[in-house]
Automatic annotation (TrEMBL):
Alphabetical GO biological process terms: phosphorelay signal transduction system
InterPro entries assigned to the protein according to its UniProt record, in alphabetical order: Biofilm_reg_signaling, CheY-like_superfamily, PAC, PAS, PAS-assoc_C, PAS-like_dom_sf, PAS_fold_3, Sig_transdc_resp-reg_receiver
Pfam families in alphabetical order: PAS_3 (PF08447), Response_reg (PF00072)
Family annotation (Gene3D superfamilies): 3.40.50.2300, PAS domain
Superkingdom field: Bacteria
Alphabetical keyword list: Phosphoprotein
This protein's name: Diguanylate cyclase/phosphodiesterase (GGDEF & EAL domains) with PAS/PAC sensor(S)
Lineage: Bacteria, Bacillati, Actinomycetota, Thermoleophilia, environmental samples
Domain PAC: 221-273
């Protein structure tokens, strides 16, 4: 049975052909024949008989997919999978084995392979389908990892403080901006909690909001709290709090953004003090004027 060439490869420069790592020449030739039958327009196959040669080739040019035998002269069992992943973790791997061992197949998948095929049960359609699915699965995995990496970089490089907090209230992950804001290094914060660093007068602030957040009554909330800096001074912080949920919509972690508003509060305090002083002077002036008027009236009455 012939499988139509997978259209997902038609316009994608994801790799230069297929890399088959197989030390048995007869098995390698059989694989090529099966591939020709199941996928007439398949990318070219390059065969390496040793894992070291395959690794060297991968470092020169990225293959679309690596198909590797687990019985190589320079590798034992899953060593081949580990070496290939180390050479390029973005390349899909299909494991070939002459052993009908389900446990080995599970181990191979756990080690990073996308599929596991038994040599004695191969046909052209199966080989073509396995390669196609391996490429698609790896592509999705790579995209997900890139998305996670991008989110992690955005978290770590944010100009404002960021933290992942457990549902029990402990720091799970913090970024550099939060460390600088509070004056603690990452290790110190990860062994502490936001509550432990909160000013005593602000400990009760936000508890009701947090309960509503966890109960689903709120999607997010904001509040202002004061924290004790590592050197002892007080930092005023505007906090935006939201809830992260898992695939089943269950609460997973709390994500919080910390914005330093100490300078604004200090400026507001200065303005209020100025206003109070100005008002006091004005009131004092009015009293002095009234006192002068009274004295004048008394003098005129004498």
């Amino acid at each position: 049975m012939t499988v139509a060439p997978p259209t997902f490869l038609a316009a994608v420069g994801e790799g230069e052909g297929l890399l088959l790592v197989e030390d048995n020449r007869a098995d390698a030739r059989l694989f090529e024949l099966l591939l020709e039958d199941g996928w007439p327009d398949a990318p070219p196959v390059h065969v390496c008989t040793r894992l070291a040669d395959a690794r060297a080739r991968m470092l020169e040019r990225r293959p679309l997919c690596v198909l590797v035998d687990l019985s190589l002269p320079d590798a034992r069992r899953l060593d081949a999978v580990h070496v290939i992943r180390a050479a390029d973790p973005t390349v899909p791997i299909v494991v070939l084995s002459g052993q009908d061992d389900a446990a080995l197949g599970i181990e191979a998948m756990g080690a990073g392979a996308q599929d596991y095929l038994l040599k004695g049960r191969l046909d052209g359609a199966l080989v073509a389908r396995s390669i196609r699915y391996a490429v698609e699965r790896k592509r999705a995995e790579n995209a997900l990892r890139e998305s996670h990496d991008l989110a992690a970089r955005a978290f770590d490089d944010a100009a404002v403080g960021m933290a992942l907090i457990t549902l029990e209230g402990a720091f799970l992950r913090v970024n550099g901006a939060l460390c600088r804001l509070l004056g603690y290094d990452e290790a110190e914060l990860l062994t502490s909690t936001p509550s432990a660093l909160t000013h005593a007068d602000d400990l009760d602030g936000g508890i009701l909001f947090l309960h509503r957040l966890l109960d689903g009554g709120l999607d997010a909330y904001e509040l202002e709290k004061r924290f004790r800096h590592a050197d002892g001074h007080v930092v005023s912080v505007q906090i935006h709090v939201a809830l992260m949920r898992d695939a089943l919509d269950r609460p997973l972690h709390i994500i919080a953004q910390f914005q330093d508003v100490t300078a604004q509060r200090r400026a507001e305090g200065y303005r209020l003090a100025q206003h109070a002083a100005t008002r006091a002077l004005a009131e004092a002036g009015s009293l002095a004027e009234a006192h002068t008027d009274v004295l004048g009236a008394l003098c005129r009455s004498l």
